[in-house]
Amino acid sequence: MLIYLIFIIVGVLLLAFALLDLKGRLKFVKNAERSVGTVSRVAERKDDDGTYYSPVFEINTSQNETITYRHGTSSSSPRWQVGQEAVFIYEPGKPDTARFLDYWDIFWFPLCVLAVAVDLLVIGCGYFLLRGYFGG
Amino acid sequence: MLTGVILFAISLYKLKQSVDFINRSERAIGTVTSLHEIDGAYSPVFTVKTKDNAQVIYHHASATNPSSWDIGEEAMFLYDPGDPRSVAMMSYFWLFNWAILFMGIAIPLIILGAGYYMIRPVIQMPQKA
Predict the structure, then answer these.
(1) What distance in Å separates residue A136's CA from the closest CA in chain B?
(2) Per-residue confidence at B126, pLDDT binned at 50, 70, 90?
(3) CB A118 within 8 A of CB B111
(4) Cβ contact (<8 Å) for B111 and A111?
(5) Which of A108, A115, B81, B128 is the most buried (most CB within 10 A)?
């Protein structure tokens, strides 16, 4: 029984954390600026397993500044070519907040935490709701 | 999201099946009579005595090392009187395992899928006038 109580407590904490984080990201998406970035070069990184490529974007902001954004994910074959474009979102004056304007890229973290939280709550609450059937 | 909704429906169906099984079942005590070794882990084998003195052998699906069960230990089981081989251990997980499993997969799929459709309008590039 204790384990299901822990599921509920952890679930509630994760739910609160996920909703707060989601709220912050929605606020960011509503207020931040959007710009098109262009791949200026493809960075190479070599290690024992081979060569990995990650695109480096130049994003021209509405304040005529240029943000350089290096994509965090590398791949073993170049998926991006110089000159290709993508849409970015960023807070004006905060170049480190730049990221792809993409549902998964922005919201994966709070939604995954939310999913884990709801799973824990359903399994935990299920135990107490159904205990009459198995005498727990 | 569609997969999530289908799995959610299957989970509810499995939940109903489990509740129906419990409602028509009889209780019986099972005793660990041996431990079955699988790749260095041990799963208990129970002998469950039904109401009409028949004995049903139940191989538990969970194996651990060291064994969580000792020979001679007892546990409560449920079985359908019309089908004595339908023995299930009387615990939350072992009675509702399929409902829990399908629900556990369905919820993340529904959240991620529904989230996409709810959030998509705010992540569009603004239309130029």
Answers:
(1) 7
(2) low
(3) yes
(4) yes
(5) A115
